[in-house]
Amino acid sequence: MILLASATAFSCGSALYEPVPADARGNTSYKNLLKGRDIFINKCGNCHNLYIPEKHTAGEWSLWLDRMKNRAKISDAERDMIYEYLILRAKSSDIKSDEKPEKN
Ligand code: HEC
Predict the structure, then answer these.
(1) Which residues, at least 6 apart from 104, have a Cβ–Cβ distance to it below 8 Å?
(2) Measured from the CA of 43, which atom of ligand 1 is nearest?
(3) pLDDT (average), residues 41-62
(4) What is residue 93's predicted lDDT score, i.e. its pLDDT?
(5) Exposed, middle or buried: residue 13 (CB in 10 Å: 0-12, 13-18, 19+)?
(6) CB of 73 shorter than 6 A to ligand 1
(7) Of residues 15 and 81, more confidently modeled
(8) Which of 38, 50, 71 should be mutated for ligand 1, with most atoms under 8 A from CB?
């Protein structure tokens, strides 16, 4: 259901990465990764096109999410789910994908 809705909502031509069960790690379940993708698609493409995960590093995503959180009217939990989804395919950087940048 979620996947179907996402596929319909995402109208841009490029493929937006879909998590697989093997992406689950630590306290991030496969289900939450799918949910993160879903929230991202539904809340983050209203004002501008969706930016693909590959566009930013994990650290940059963290900063952008903090900046966009109020605009997108999402909760902290939703912000974190989007973050966990985005960093699966974030641009590589000195920050490893399973290492969260310090949050304030
Ligand atoms: C209410 C409108 C609005 C919503 C909703 C919104 N944004 Fe934005 N976003 C903007 C504006 C305006 C900018 C231009 C830069 C600025 O003013 O901060 C921007 C810029 C960005 C950028 C930087 C542009 C770039 O070149 O990469 C990223 C990344 C981004 N948004 C991600 C998100 C994410 C992720 C969400 C969902 C959590 C989101 N945005 C939801 C309005 C919005």
Answers:
(1) none
(2) 37
(3) 96
(4) 76
(5) exposed
(6) no
(7) 81
(8) 71
Domains and CATH numbers, the chain: 30-92 (1.10.760)
Residue 80 has a CB neighbour count (10 Å cut-off) of: 19
Q: Count CB-CB contacts under 10 A for residue 9.
A: 12
Nearest residue (by CA) to ligand 1, atom 37, is 44
Q: For residue 71, which atom of ligand 1 is closest to its CA?
A: 1
What percentage of the chain reaches a pLDDT higher than 70? 76
Whole-number average pLDDT of the chain: 85
Residue 58 · residue 93 · CB < 8 Å: yes
CA 56/CA 66 separation, integer angstroms: 14
Contacts of 19 (CB under 8 A, 6+ apart): 30, 33, 34, 37, 85, 88
Q: What is the pLDDT, as a whole number, of residue 103?
A: 54
